[in-house]
């Protein structure tokens, strides 16, 4: 079986996503890239009930290489992200706080310095119907400039990583940041970190990948 270890890893991450509330039901999807091949979760299947053989393998053009099930409907978005980033894995969530922020805002401001680990201010990609080339293009635009995560308007979130564990942890961090913001808004107006304050964090040793100050 091609990418056998990677397909097993998709199942493991799928279970963790369901257990931690990053997805519910058959929502959300995951993929991992190895060279010119991508293993992705199947469409319409709960992520905590997958077996490795359920996860199809495609080439970077989206053509099937191995597997009986149809790939996730969000596969075009995954392929678009692989095309414009150094990602080796992608996690797409339908988490509660991420969806709240994605439904009400155009970006998640830096309310905590760990925002830098995601590349700075998290952008909300413009709305488009799921699974369409338009959504893939919008997400790709939202992740320009070395971003490690983005939100999708009225939809959910997406995070990338150097491997599946890294992408999963970035997705968890995105949900935590959204949760902090939403809860802070319930008791007052959150204080947003300034550009100078973020630069001071970088100078003290936090080394977020590809982060650049906003100009």
TrEMBL record:
Keywords recorded for this protein, A-Z: Lyase, Metal-binding
Pfam families tied to this protein: Aldolase_II
Keyword Metal-binding among record annotations: yes
Superkingdom of the source species: Bacteria
Domain Class II aldolase/adducin N-terminal: 8-182
InterPro entries: Aldolase_class_II_sugar_metab, Aldolase_II/adducin_N, Aldolase_II/adducin_N_sf
Transmembrane feature ranges: none
PANTHER family given in the database record: 3-OXO-TETRONATE 4-PHOSPHATE DECARBOXYLASE-RELATED, FUCULOSE PHOSPHATE ALDOLASE
Identification of the protein by name: Class II aldolase/adducin family protein
């Amino acid at each position: 079986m091609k990418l056998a270890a990677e397909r097993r890893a998709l199942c493991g991450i799928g279970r963790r996503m369901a257990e931690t509330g990053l997805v519910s039901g058959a929502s959300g999807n995951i993929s991992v890239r190895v060279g010119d091949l991508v293993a992705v979760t199947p469409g319409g299947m709960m992520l905590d009930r997958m077996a490795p053989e359920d996860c199809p393998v495609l080439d970077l053009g989206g053509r099937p290489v191995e597997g009986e099930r149809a790939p996730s409907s969000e596969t075009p978005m995954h392929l678009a992200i692989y095309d414009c980033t150094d990602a080796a894995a992608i996690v797409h969530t339908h988490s509660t706080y991420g969806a709240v922020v994605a439904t009400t805002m155009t970006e998640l401001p830096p309310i905590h310095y760990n925002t830098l680990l995601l590349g700075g201010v998290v952008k909300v990609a413009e709305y488009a119907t799921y699974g369409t080339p338009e959504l893939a293009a919008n997400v790709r635009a939202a992740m320009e400039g070395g971003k490690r995560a983005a939100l999708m308007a009225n939809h959910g979130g997406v995070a990338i990583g150097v491997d599946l564990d890294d992408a999963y942890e970035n997705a968890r961090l995105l949900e935590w940041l959204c949760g902090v913001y939403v809860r802070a808004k319930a008791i007052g107006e959150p204080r947003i970190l300034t550009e100078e304050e973020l630069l001071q964090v970088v100078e003290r040793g936090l080394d977020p990948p590809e982060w650049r100050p906003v100009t």
